[in-house]
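note to self — DONT lose this again. spent like an hour looking for the file last time. sequence + predicted structure for the chain T wanted, 745 res
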Amino acid sequence: MKSIEAEKIQKAYEVLLDSYTGSVHRKKISIIEKAFNFANEAHKGIKRYSGEPFILHPLSVALIVSKEMGLGSTSISAALLHDVVEDTDRTIDDVEFLFGRKIAQIVGGLTKISGGNFSKNVSIQAENMRKLLLTMSSDIRVILVKIADRLHNMRTLCSLPLVKQYKIAGETLYLYAPMAHRLGLFSIKTELENLSFQSEYPREYKQIDEQLKITSHNRGKIYDQFIMPLKEELNKLGYYYKIQKRTKSVYSIWSKMQTKGISFSDIYDIFAVRIIFESDSRYTEKKQCWDIYSIVTDLYQLRPDRLRDWVSHPKANGYQSLHLTVMGPNGQWIEVQIRSFQMDEVAEKGFASHWKYKEQGSDFNFQQNELDLWLEKIRAILRVPTPNAMDFLDTIKLNLYSDEIFVFTPKGDIKTLPQSATVLDFAYEIHSDIGNHCIGAKVNHRLASLSHLLASGDQVEILISESQLPKKEWLNIVTTATAKTKIESTIRKQKKIQIQKGEKLLNNYFALFGIKVDTQSVDKFCDFYGYSKREFLFFALDEKQVQLPKNPYSILKNSIENFSSVRHSKSVVNSLSSSKELENSFMNNFQKTNKNEIFILKEEEFQKNFIVKSCCRPIPGDEVFGFVRDDGQLEIHKKLCKKAIFLKTHFGNRLILCNWAGHRVSSFIVALELKGIDRIGMLSDIMQVITHDLVINTRKISIAANDGVFEGIIEIFIQNVHDIHTISLKLGEIAGMKSIARTRN
């Protein structure tokens, strides 16, 4: 008689088979069955954190790959096998022998780097993502299976230790959700965002979710009133269609509230109406979209500035749809999305749909060009040697979420770029040499600088000069991964040439005095000028940052006495940062603690066991986390800190859960943004509340009035979040005061 666990496993496998056999793929059940049996045997006896048999995880991932992405037997088999090499004694050679090179290649790309000779500054998370993308560049199914794996991990996140939940949720929001977006997996992208947000900010998630439920009935009435005349017109014209109500996701609502600084009630586009129609072979899909557009705008007043034509110019991930915003019958703006059923499939499953058709052996060249263009950009980035995987990861991340613009060359060729692209980005999009020698451009026949932001419809002619070369400052101008990678590569090559020139300069200098060029002599010069590496000295010589003395013997004979104070301070810092005592005394204490244990932030006699970071200025009462630095000290950041996602993604193993102890000794600087109706005596009333009523020390105040409205920033010293609430309530009582908000920094 089968055990309960065995029955559960068998049932999950049968659900997977039902999904696959119900699809349009050629039925290759034997390879899936073989992969399941192999994985089931390999994972036998292994449990997940939840206590369930481990094999249920790859079965769930395979079901996502089959049911939610619509992929076939190769992807399903790879999903079933994706953890066997990493978590069992099976090898990649075993997988290739039994399942072939293609499945082995996908599984290999999904297998994390488990060890290696990495320094403490290297992020294993970033190295793993680089490895994943290297494999993805030759087979997009690698990242599709990985996204399915991450989706199931997020769905079962609650069974993991809290610190691991925090790290995985941040990593998901930083990279996997944008990657799903870039691949056109809209529904999966939305779920990943919501799950990450719910994990990190459960209170905020619950508040918005409850607001959506409360207002659901009213939205339903608006929707019904809005679509009734639309359905009548579409029925008259014989369209086969369906109309859907698409409600904005909780994460999207929260994100908009944060970005715009508004409340839930101020968001007018909480839901959109989607019209999906069956194509008529007598007309193009583009014409049918515009015909339905005419029906909608005949019934409702159009808002022209909100028209988006993704039918004529699809997004880089293949997305096609016509978006318009109209005034509904109740005076509320409503977004309408118009697309065919095929466009809708691409919108929901993106490039996974392309791969589905390819796996079927169809001749249908579904978004092939867009997919190949994107993968070629990834390959170009991968071809450039990047010493730091974290820099590489940030480069890949650059344009995953960006909306596109369409820019024309002087000959009328169209180039697709991110919305924030500059003239310099456009130059590198054309060719590396054009970018390297770019000095400016003519945008619509007018001169423009390298940093000029481009807009859709611009015609751009790049101006070049052979004497121009890339500068480090250019990295702050460009926004595309392509441009950033090419600039960094060229700068590295330039620096290498300069180092060689500097080395030759020093060698000639030594030869002039008959001094033997050896390691000892060069190192003495490095010590004297305060450089830890010879390459730094050589570069400084070529840059003329260092002037060689008329007599080298004073340096060679008395190098120790002549160490510069800069060198001395560098030596102290270097010795401290690599000190066994520091690392073992602090870092190991954190490693020994239970991952679910909360570290208490204390202060005694003005001495704290933590460092408050100025990037987000956390104060007692804020939700925070800790990051263990190389020197063993603990940095404290707000959960909403802009740097938080970077730390979670690159150094998840260094994060610590923290809570504040009672802080009534130290003061913290907080900036409040004030807005209101200006009047005589307003500033006096504000200062009266702060300095007299509440007796709070003010650090800085800046208020300006314009056309009867004032805005200002006031920086004050407080001790915790409760103080902010008290101050806000008192300031809110002042006549004309409309809003008081703590600035996000």
